[in-house]
Structures are given as C-alpha cells and as structure tokens.
C-alpha cells in the first residue's frame, strides 16, 4: 500500500487561531516575513501540542516538517524540542521521537526549516501527538506538517 503523504496536522499554518493546538505560553503573532500571516510565538517554558486520533499506516515512516524563526536577544541561543509520539488506545506512550533544535540567529530575518523522520507506528497506535517545547530563548513556529512517506528497502 502506498503512503498517502496527507498532512495529519490541522491548522499547521496557524491561520487566525491556535485551535486545535493546545499548550501554555504560546500565542499568535504577526509573521515577520509574510505580511498578513500569523505564526506562534513561544519562549522558555512554553509548550504547544496537537493530538490526532486515527488509523496510521504501519508500513510508512512519518515525517515531521516545521519552520522556526529565532527571535531571541543577541547572545541568547534558543533551544527547543520538537517531537512526535505514538500512543495506544488507552493513551499510553508507545514511542517518542524527539528532535533538539537550536535555530540560528540570521543576519537577515528568515525562518529555518527542519524535519524529523519518525519510524513506523505499531499496529496498536491510535493517537499521534506533535509536541513543541521551548527551554531557552524565544522562537516563532510555523508551517507544521506530519505526513506518511514510503520507506526505501535495501535488498
């Protein structure tokens, strides 16, 4: 069966609202690059997550894509963790794939793109959680996507 590449995240572009995202100390702000667009602002201690219920493709890896803008003060290195977690029907953790991100300070304002490859879920997976935690500095997050992709097999 082919992997469908469909984005499982709702409102990954944060268009006019945070819903269905949940968390604390995360808020919508104007995107500094694209006029009329919004991003999520997070600082140390912030968390943001979305949990999706579904049937997941066990023969596919899931890719997490997102963009980060480091808006920390000069001399402060932002640090955050992005993660995808699989949970069973009872909400018990089956697997988590964290990615430590230290977005660069850029001379011209721009977002940096990141992705993580998440191993295939167990057949008993019923929920997929996408999580962002900021431990240092201040960042903007935008363009979040989680999608199934084929796994290349070596013969």
Keywords:
eight-stranded antiparallel sheet; single chain; mainly beta; 155 residues; Jelly Rolls
Indicate the topology.
Blueprint: E1 22-30, E2 38-53, E3 61-70, E4 79-87, E5 93-101, E6 112-118, E7 127-136, E8 138-149
Antiparallel strand pairs: 1-2, 2-7, 2-8, 3-6, 3-8, 4-5, 4-7
Q: How would you explain this protein's 3D organization?
A:
With 155 residues, the chain is an all-beta fold. The protein has a single domain, classed as Jelly Rolls, CATH 2.60.120. 0% of the residues lie in helices and 53% in strands. It has strands at residues 22-30, 38-53, 61-70, 79-87, 93-101, 112-118, 127-136, 138-149. Strands 1, 2, 3, 4, 5, 6, 7 and 8 form an eight-stranded antiparallel beta sheet that branches. Strand 4 and strand 5 (93-101) form a beta hairpin. It is globular and about 45 Å long. The chain starts with 21 loop residues before the first strand and ends in a 6-residue tail after the last strand.
CATH class designation = Mainly Beta
- CATH domain topology: Jelly Rolls
Based on DSSP secondary structure assignment, what is the total number of beta strands? 8
Strand content: over 45%
Using the 3D structure, state the CATH architecture: Sandwich
> Assembly type of the shown chains?
single chain
Which geometry do the CA atoms define?
A: globular
Compute the gyration radius: what is it? Answer: 16 Å
Mean pLDDT: 93
Tally of distinct domains: 1
Q: What is the helix tally?
A: 0
The profile of the biggest β sheet is: 8 strands, antiparallel
CATH superfamily: Galactose-binding domain-like
Distance between the termini: 19 Å
Low confidence ranges: none
Q: Which structural class should the secondary elements be placed in?
A: mainly beta
Helix content percent band:
under 10%
